[in-house]
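Attaching the record inline, Q. Sequence:
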Amino acid sequence: MAVMFAITFLCLFAAWTLWNIYLISKNYVTARKIGLPILVCPFDSVSPLWMLARPVIGPALRRLPFELGEFVGYSYVGWAWEHRYKLHARYGPAFTIVSPGEVHVVVGDVGAAASVLYRWKDFVKNLAIMEGFNMFGPNLVTSDGETWQRHRRITAPPFNERNSALVWAESTRQATELLKLWTSPDTIAAMGNIKSATHTLALNVLSGAAFGKPLPFDSEYRKPEHGHRMSFLDAIHIVTDNIIKSIVIDSARKIPACVMPKSFLRVKTAIRETKSYLTEMVAAERQVYGKGISSDGRQNLMSNLIKLSEQARLNQGQDEKSPSSKRSWLSDDEILGNLFLYNVAGHETTANTLSYSIALLAAYPDMQDWMIEEIQSVLGSGKHENAPDSIPVYEDTFPRMKRCLAVMHETLRLHAPLQGIPRWTGNSSQSLNIGEKTVLIPPKTAVIVNIGATHTNPSIWGDDADSWRPPRWIPSTGDSDKEEFLSAPTKDAFFPWASGPRVCPGLKFSQVEFVAVMAGLFLNHRVEPVLKADETIDDARRRFVSVVQDSHMLTTVQMRHPERLKVKWVPIEKK
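Structure, as predicted:
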């Protein structure tokens, strides 16, 4: 029996190996026709078997002689975070990665990257790999072509200046309440985890500015509403923090709960609760709109989204059962899908950017001084006592906060949530100019815009491209009285919100939220590391930088050990 088992196993392994060799050979032939340098990876990066095996055997494979194990470094989703510009420095502005799965054309050239993003009809989304994000309904990210245009027409307008004013007010209020907690006599609360605090803040801003449910910062107010097992924010938080697990659970919804691990059951409950809450909120908002109640004071994203969709439906005179190809409005499922997208895109990404920025400002006091100088110049030192209703309104303040935005941009340059933007050639070949060379990319080929490379190319960002230096975004004019302005060194060299027609509609939302939080936190206070035993302040700052650099790619780029960053807030002495 043992011999038969061994023979069967060896036969299956041999068949699997030969099949993978065939697939790699086939893809290699395709890659050679493109004419770019080729890197070979013997395993498909999304293979479940390899995803489980890589952390275990990867370190040993990397030690193989003659760089035979080099492929481990680019054999997983998110590898661009590890390498940034290094592979392009070695192999050129673009190269291909060949695996048993498919051919990936990796683009690190800024001009070519911009071309891919602007030519949205040529370089499309591979909807097959986006299907999992339809768990609440089709949305802007999971659609393409005319369907995407319809989603864009309705989902982009809610991100307007009136909503920006609401985001500013809500973000300022949340920041000042967080600061009160951080500076309270309760040392446990005062030295809390940066990541935990910024995630709570980002969720609360979304609750108020996106769903019209303003809440105090303190989490004790998060109680389940009638008929629910979780609060809305807790349910959203669990789903977005476990997005991959949520996709798996949703795709396997027919599996009985009794055979699921406990951690999966909690996520499954959160998915159900999130959909129930969103459905109830949409129904309530539709009722408000149906009664003809003015929406002038209701500038949250949900109210504007439903208003625009309802107006499009009434203008077209079609009902809910109309084919999607003929609709100019969004169905209930599509509204739910886009509302959930607001949470996925606007929660973790902004929270992580805030976490990284606060940690880096604590590590680099000169950069913190530079930013505080602007905040106090615009708001006036000590005049507002961090009261949210006394900090100047959005229209008077946000346009003048260039240094705060520079901090955000520099953090996103090095720690963008996504290090690559995936596109696909679809059913047609596409030509692409890469430097002075033009290549023809075959149909059904993945094209990756390598943000990790374009954001750290020394020829664009300088020899200190890997260093965090926000002032690089404010060109020196030599005149201290001249207004500062924000500028990238090269057009189209910065893609954290993507670029071109498919640029993220929440770009302004996230910028306003970030600047408002910086204003609320740093107007009258500085942030400093909490020292460990026998640690100097310089040692603590170096430790903060080390923790920030020790990041990895999960759903987004995240610090491995954010719990190691404890901060304290020190009042700024009045001059």
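The first strand starts at residue 38 and ends at 40. Residues 2-137 form one domain.

More tomorrow.
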